[in-house]
Amino acid sequence: MRSAWLVLALVLAGCGERPSDPAPVAGGAELYAKHCASCHGANLEGQPNWRSRLSNGRLPAPPHDDSGHTWHHPPELLFAITKYGLVPPHAPKDYESDMPAYASVLSDDEIRAVLAHIESRWSNELRNARAEMLRNRGK
Asked: Exposed, middle or buried: residue 122 (CB in 10 Å: 0-12, 13-18, 19+)?
């Protein structure tokens, strides 16, 4: 069990290797399918025209695959947005979003599993670019 948590921690830290233990990712895939796929797509493709505002002024759900910007965000921000929704301090004060908070729906470990699943689907090139970005952010 300890090795599974270590693998998950390495995935969330943005290392450039795929997890060797598929258990956290498999659980995350099921949770993603249940809670996220209806907006972000079964294949992480997001909603059409995700960069263009809808008639209500909100943005469609972005993709979580290589074509999106999810990988630009550090793990702790992705965790916070998933747990609390897209609200301040992770969004401008009056920003309106359809991203719900999952704090009362998913445990912290389940949120981490979903994020591990998302990251496991990224290309090695993208994962390496993200790891480099995260290393440089600490400088």
From this structure: buried
